[in-house]
Amino acid sequence: MPRRPHRPAADRRGAILVLVAVLMPVIVLMVAFAIDVAWMQLVRTELRTATDAASRAGAKTLSLRQDRVAARDAAIEAASRNPVAGAGLAVSPGEVEFGESTQPSAGARFTFRSGGGTINAVRVTGSRTAGSAGGRVNLFFGSVLGTPAFEPQMTATSTMLERDICLVIDRSGSMGLDISFGGTGNGQNCGPLGSRTRFAALTEAVAAFVDELEVTYPEEHLALVSYSSRFRQSCPNGDLRFPTASLHNRLTTDYSAINATMAAFMQNGIGGSTAIGQGLREGIEALEDARPYAVKTIVLMTDGRHNQGVTPENVANDAARANCTVHTVGFSPNADSRRLRTVASRTGGQYYHADTAGDLAEAFREIARTLPVLITD
Q1: What pTM was computed for the model?
Q2: Does residue 188 sit in helix, strand or coil?
Q3: Which of 246, 247, 259 is nearest to 364 (CA)?
Q4: Using the 8-state DSSP alphabet, how is residue 97 labeled?
């Protein structure tokens, strides 16, 4: 068969160059758009971080200081430490609001209402708008697309959560020792107890704790448990008969009843060994009646070392499973700080040490002022 003549392929290099030239502006616009979109997303993330930090700082300060001016200053200062588009976020005093944050049901979103009867939340509005101190955020290539800047704005609300608290106090014999004595042993058992006994210092500390709760914004419910060991002793005012641990006051808002129980101990007396684990277990059981949305908190206090019954570390594991935060307080040089630190750390709590009556009262005040804070919006 005759062969067809070979024809050389057409040279298409010129056509590709034309296509690239036509598409290059589109490619440049797409790249510019992608860069600006990524920049906008980064700025929004920075703004969210800054407003969250500001609202949390404001709520924490409101919890500790119970002072709105100090809380507003703390929120503004925290915002300024967080960069947004290369500069610290500037928040004006009017962008820090105080109000009431409520949760209508378990799992539901919190709702914030500015003002309100119960102040338990701080809302911060973070703005990079034309009217804000920081101004609008410039885009890299936005002017090409007719939008040279964008104006993000975000709000964050931090809520001080309500607590149900159980005080778990040591009524062992060593609590009858003079507060100036740093050793071990049994002190005064029969009442009335002297004003310089360790238990008298504890009574004053509990009164200070109650006073702080009276002025905090949320309304906490309070219970009281005491522990030592199974103890019996004859005294002029009547026999002392103690089980290892006792629930004296169920959760209540009548704080005067707590002070009355402490006064009764001062009048009647104390005594026994130091079964810290059983006292903690009784505290966990006392919080089984806690409100559904309240944070369960135990304040566990001792002046000595665990010497009877189940170990506090084992019960701390139970507390963690029951969602109870345990703050521990060691009073006197003989308090078992290592063990108390372990109990606190296993439950997300803190350990406080006190050598003097003043130290003890201040530790209780600080625990009362330190409310848990949650970003709810």
Answers
A1: 0.74
A2: coil
A3: 259
A4: E
